[in-house]
Amino acid sequence: MVMMTRQKIKRVKWRLKDVAIVIPYRSLEGHQDGLHESSLKHNQKSCLSRYQSALYRKESPYKPSYYLSSRLRQYEALHKRCGPYTESYNRTIRKLESSELTSEPSDCNYFVHMPLDGLGNKILSLASAFLYALLTNRVLLVYDNGGGIADLFCEPFPDTTWLLPQDFPILKRFETLNNKSSESYGNILNRNSSSSSFVYVHLVFGYDTQNELFFCDQDQIFLQNVSWVIMRSHFYYIPSLFLIKSFEQELAALFPEKESVFHFLGRYLFFPTNPVWDLITRYYRAYLAKSDEKLGIQIRIFKPWYLKVIINTTFTYEALPETILACSLENNLLPEFSTNDSPITPREKGKSIAVIVTSLHSGSITKIRDVYWENSAVNGDLIVVSQPSSEGSQHTGKKMHDKKAWAEIYLLSLTDKLITSSFSTFGYVAQGLGGLKPWILHMSKNGTVPNPACSRAISMEPCFHFPPSNGCKTRSSRIDIGKVVPYVTHCEDMSSGLKLVDP
């Protein structure tokens, strides 16, 4: 590590075209924040964002525990020893190719994660999978169907890969695995047998009570000696890991500040690949770098059927632009503006505020931009509104669409303040990476602006939208799992969901 003593910090000017940014010298050496002490083992040119991201974002107010840093180094060593095509991996593959589960311990056990749905869901479920692997001393391998993960994210661990090899023996079966498969955890429990060489956990919307048992202590004991656990999920299920008694002590040591879990995991795991980093840095230099303050506004317009079937609610979006503006004014995120025809003379020179809007549609940006184009801010602030893209609809799986989505998430995380949409995993990722407690928009049900228009999140942690309701101990009890421990509570934007907080 680079030592900075005698109250002197060696500083370097790094020029973003015509904008000089002054940073501590250590930032050019990689992230010396306890999370990335192994950064110098990576090829710098292959992942520029790993070494340049500190130039663009403020230093986090949160500090990782020494124990978390230590466990990450241990995990990196484990992954290097047990990763794809190592001797241990090849030996365990042969066990997978056999027809039955075995209770014989392996020197390496694996957790294969199959992410699905949109980019926000994929990132959150990947972070959840990594924490589970860390807690259970498993090696995380990611099924990258179509190459989307490799196109978007740098390899997180030095001298190895987290991608599941394409010659994985049962790869062809992945698309057909579901909760009815003979290898599903629920069916294995029902049969009370060990007739499969792996266990499949189906943790997607509508998962049944048998798969809920994955979050029970006694079921984790059963899984300890299973070499291959395979899961399909699109959830941020970390809050429910905090309710597993056998993980409690380890999690307390890893994360003394509960609301920093995704903040640290996200900053450790997810660095944009060079093509995505190029999108991010060019946009930042053009639209954000010169501003005194940056406000992010993340807008997600859900289809009516999704709101009704999945979220069990209804909204109208006619008043959305006015709601965003009201939220901004009520919370002093944007200045009041004068509607008088005569120009005003501010008492002092105002600051410049860059507003970045991310949305699949362009309607909301027009309202905000026009207000501050047609009217002066009463305090003399200058407001510049921009939107990187407006794709019209979600095209998950299309490579350029996903690259733009990842770039926009990252740009939002570089702002000083953030407004997000309810239920949106896109916004959850941005707030977590940025260490931001966002203002969450209240959606209108009658076409008028809600009062209040938004409310501040109680923590920057994402929400687990559909947690298990099983009480585990009796296998049938129904309890309010948002009241079991003080640091797991219900979400602001979805009352049945769970999120981590610092009580």
Give the topology.
Blueprint: E1 11-16, E2 19-24, H1 48-52, H2 66-82, H3 87-97, E3 109-115, H4 119-136, E4 138-142, H5 148-152, H6 185-191, E5 199-203, H7 209-212, H8 217-223, E6 228-233, H9 238-241, H10 248-254, H11 261-269, H12 274-288, E7 293-298, H13 304-311, H14 320-330, E8 337-338, E9 352-358, H15 363-374, E10 376-377, E11 382-386, H16 399-413, E12 417-420, H17 425-434, E13 439-441, E14 454-456, E15 488-490, E16 498-500
Parallel strand pairs: 3-4, 3-6, 5-6, 7-9, 7-12, 9-11, 12-13
Antiparallel strand pairs: 1-2, 8-10, 13-14, 15-16
Quick summary of this structure?
With 503 residues, this protein is an alpha/beta fold.
Structure description:
- The structure is a single chain.
- The protein has helices at 48-52, 66-82, 87-97, 119-136, 148-152, 185-191, 209-212, 217-223, 238-241, 248-254, 261-269, 274-288, 304-311, 320-330, 363-374, 399-413, 425-434; strands at 11-16, 19-24, 109-115, 138-142, 199-203, 228-233, 293-298, 337-338, 352-358, 376-377, 382-386, 417-420, 439-441, 454-456, 488-490, 498-500.
- It has 503 residues and is α/β, with parallel strands linked by helices.
- It has three domains: 11-55, no CATH class; 66-269, no CATH class; 291-462, Rossmann fold, CATH 3.40.50.
- The strands form five sheets. The chain has a six-stranded mixed sheet with strand order 11-9-7-12-13-14, sandwiched between helices.
- Strand 3 (109-115), helix 4 (119-136) and strand 4 form a beta-alpha-beta unit.
- Helix 4 (119-136) crosses helix 11.
- It starts with 10 loop residues before the first strand and ends with a strand.
- Residues 1-32 have low confidence and may be disordered.
- Pfam families: XG_FTase.
- It is found in: Golgi apparatus, Golgi stack membrane.
- One of its GO terms (molecular function) is galactoside 2-alpha-L-fucosyltransferase activity.
- Belongs to the glycosyltransferase 37 family.
